[in-house]
Design brief:
Number of helices: 9
Mean pLDDT: 96
Helix content: 25-40%
Bound molecules: 2'-O-acetyl adenosine-5-diphosphoribose
Order of helices and strands: EHHHHHHEHEEEEHEEEH
Distance between the termini: 18 Å
Low-confidence stretches: none
Strand content: 15-25%
Structural class: alpha/beta
Largest sheet: 6 strands, parallel
Number of strands: 9
CATH topology of the largest domain: Rossmann fold
Radius of gyration: 18 Å
CATH superfamily of the largest domain: TPP-binding domain
Shape: globular
Number of domains: 2
């Protein structure tokens, strides 16, 4: 695949919306029901770990019930002709389950837990995390999630991928959370860019961008078909 063009895709909660997983900033989104600082910050964890565990245990149960939709599948199918790197803000594993082989998770993974005192101690986790569940060093387990006010360890690797993209696609993200949203500044201005979202965020400052105002399950297969056709010719 060394001669293949490289497609880099930045995804957000919208790509998984049609798999039944809630987005964050919609009127019925997760941040309407929960305060970010209560459930997704180190302060929230210190103040009320049970609340944080309850929140993420529910996210894990939802992910285990969800199945990839046509949007995830179209992204995976691009691997037939392209080198594809998916950079996702999502904590679900729907890209992997759809068949994508290179997925960078910027904000962690819900099907993993980690030690509270040693961020390198990471475990597979398909059940609820309970108060009293401990890592091998004896500290409470927490979800393997990057919270607000925490560093985003994968951001440099992601920026490197974005800066070497031949084609860049954005799907289902409001582009409101940094540093993830800042990745779009690493794409070369001449690189063709596509954005799929039923509510197009402000990307007027980007050159060579085509906005497809559709849901992921419709817009992404259409776009993938076009890109795969171009390569076949
Ligand atoms: P948001 O909830 O901010 O944005 C979701 C985006 O998906 C919006 O632009 C919607 O228009 C779009 N959308 C909705 N339904 C869609 C569909 N069927 N197909 C395609 N797009 C659709 O979610 P994110 O941008 O992913 O971080 O949020 C970024 C980060 O903020 C999350 O990773 C999370 C959150 O706080 C952490 O928890 C650290």
């Amino acid at each position: 695949m060394t001669n293949s063009k490289k497609v880099v895709i930045l995804t957000g909660a919208g790509i998984s919306a049609e798999s039944g997983l809630k987005t964050f900033r919609a009127t019925d989104g997760l941040w309407e029901e929960h305060r970010i600082e209560d459930v997704a910050s180190p302060e929230g964890w210190r103040n009320n770990p049970q609340l944080v565990l309850d929140f993420y245990n529910q996210r894990r149960r939802d992910v285990l019930k969800a199945i990839p939709n046509k949007g995830h599948i179209a992204i995976a199918e691009l691997e037939e002709k392209f080198e594809v790197v998916v950079i996702t803000q999502n904590i679900d594993n729907l890209h992997e389950r759809a068949g994508s082989s290179k997925v960078i998770h910027l904000h962690g993974e819900i099907l993993k837990s980690r030690s509270t005192i040693d961020s390198k101690l990471i475990y597979k986790c398909e059940k609820d995390i309970l108060i009293g569940d401990k890592c091998e060093k004896g500290s409470q387990l927490r979800p393997f999630i990057v919270w607000f006010n925490e560093a985003v360890p994968m951001i440099e690797i992601a920026a490197k991928e974005v800066s070497s993209a031949d084609i860049f696609i954005i799907v289902g993200t409001s582009l409101q959370v940094y540093p993830a949203a800042g990745l779009i500044n690493y794409v070369h201005p001449m690189v063709p860019k596509f954005l799929v979202d039923p509510n197009i965020p402000d990307v007027n400052f980007l050159k060579n961008i085509v906005c497809i105002e559709k849901k992921g399950s419709e817009g992404m297969p259409e776009l993938a078909e076009k890109l795969l056709k171009i390569i076949k010719q």
